[in-house]
Design a protein that fits this description.
mainly beta, Porin
Amino acid sequence: MKLFSITVTYLTLFVAFQAFSATVNEPVSTSIIDKSNAINLPSQYEMIGGFRSYNDSGRYTQIEKDKEARTFKSQNDFFLGARVINSWGLYLMTTQTLSNFNNSTKDKWVKADSSITLVHPLWYQGDQWKVSGAFRQYLPTSDYSKQFNAHQTAFYVALTGYSDRWNYFNILIPRYFSKDNTQPADTTYYLEDRSTISQNLNSWFRLGFGQWSQIEAHYDSPTGSCIEIYPYVDFVLNKTTFISTRFSFPIHANGKVFDGPPLASKDFGYTEVFLETTL
């Protein structure tokens, strides 16, 4: 099963490369909010839609030493909607997740919660900077959310900067969780911040550096926090499609956070291959 899932992932990337191997004249934004490379519809509307695939290895030391450790995870998002040009928009997203473990009896392919996202008009747009936002309500469609009546709400605030060769992106995401029959370690509030800075070396290749910070509050247990940093390489296939390879490792870890490491050490790093294509 592990070999099959890894094979499928890389076949997907290979097919995408063959299908979208044209070069481009401008970099592609990784924002989920304000740059969808949308197709213009008749009248004042445009499409929002695409596919994202996050494919992570397990954390290196855990794979080697923990017989129950996760060895591979693939999260695949499909989204589609529309917006008034330069104004409000709405799209639906559905997510499927594959997880493989050292103990193969725990391998699973599950449907995660779907969501509906309301996209704001740009709050600010200048020659080199723009600020955008979106509100997302997750729908309790997964087995877990149905069983525990779990709900999640998120708000996105994004800052995007761009020039001829450099790109900057920052997104701040507060989340609120609720459910029935709570346990002390269940999450109530969660704040994450992601930043990237990259340089376009040519029309199809860029190098960058990023960070992912998390603070997670729980019903009745200590608040956790984590900071991970990562260099990355992007291969831009065309104006709407790119593949990214990222090498992430924690520089701060304290308590429980989503998918977080037990310690701040390069031994608990992991590798991610990311694919995004939009309409």
